[in-house]
Amino acid sequence: MEAVSGSSVCVTSSLAPRSPTLPKSTVSLLRASHQHLTAFPSQSHLFSYHSPPYAKTLRARTASKPAIFLPHLIASLEQVDQTYIMVKPDGVQRGLVGEIISRFEKKGFKLTGLKLFQCSKELAEEHYKDLKQKSFFPKLIDYITSGPVVCMAWEGVGVVASARKLIGATDPLQAEPGTIRGDLAVQTGRNVVHGSDSPDNGKREIALWFKEGELCEWTPVQAPWIRE
Which segments of the chain have a pLDDT < 50? Predict the structure, then answer.
């Protein structure tokens, strides 16, 4: 390697050892090579201060668009859904309402509707209309109308799928420990709680069980600590 200071040249490479007997012609050749390299007039953008044409075009296309941090982009695509959760008559009679509400609150979902309600036969039949052809349908209607239920509307990102996991399998004997049914119920016919099985059904059931003006729109102060 060579270091240049002013007009002098210092040869430090093993290729050009410092020696008083080094031929003058060799020194001159090294000096000329160095000057040629430092004055290399490359037209390549790799050696140019100016950006290549395609970089300028790219900047022009993106200059007016703000940069989006990837996690924020993903968060903006997450869908806020609604689900209908109902504490069935056996859950109310056993005093499990507070326990069930607590599990959804601790998860971070937002409660937008809550009421104690005596279900009519007509409403129960409309709610469970998809099961109308099942042999157990009459017994199911009698069960739901046998006492008051607690109607709840919950809102949040992925609330439908998450609520189903919190509730557990329909048969409490197959529900995982830690789920509501796994911890609090022992029989399918007395499985304590209902939850919507899809976002569309969540909207339909909320509209079925709640009248206009019974839902509250509000922003929990803890929201920034639950979602980005």
Answer: 2-17, 19, 39-40, 42, 44-49, 58, 65, 68, 72-76
Q: Is 88 known as a binding-site position?
A: yes
Give the pair of three-digit tokens for residue 170.
């329909």
227 carries a ligand binding annotation: no
181 assigned to a ligand binding site: yes
Which residues touch 85 (CB under 8 Å, ≥6 apart)? 100, 104, 152, 153, 154, 163, 193, 194, 195, 196
Report pTM. 0.67
Q: Where are the domains of the chain?
A: 76-213
* 145 Cβ contact list (under 8 Å, min separation 6): 118, 119, 120, 121, 124
pLDDT of residue 21: 58
> Out of 36, 45, 50, 194, which one is annotated catalytic?
194
Residue-level pLDDT at 78 = 75
93: tokens are: 């009679």
Q: Fold for domain 76-213?
A: Alpha-Beta Plaits (3.30.70)
210 is in an annotated binding site: no
Query: What pLDDT does residue 91 have?
Result: 98
Alpha-helix runs per DSSP H in the chain: 24-38, 53-62, 70-77, 89-93, 97-107, 121-127, 137-144, 159-167, 180-184, 199-209, 223-226
Q: At what angle do helices 159-167 and 199-209 cross, to 10 degrees?
A: 80
With H, G, I as helix, E, B as strand and everything else as coil, classify residue 187.
strand
The partner residues of 113 in beta bridges, in order of sequence, read 153
Active site includes 34? no
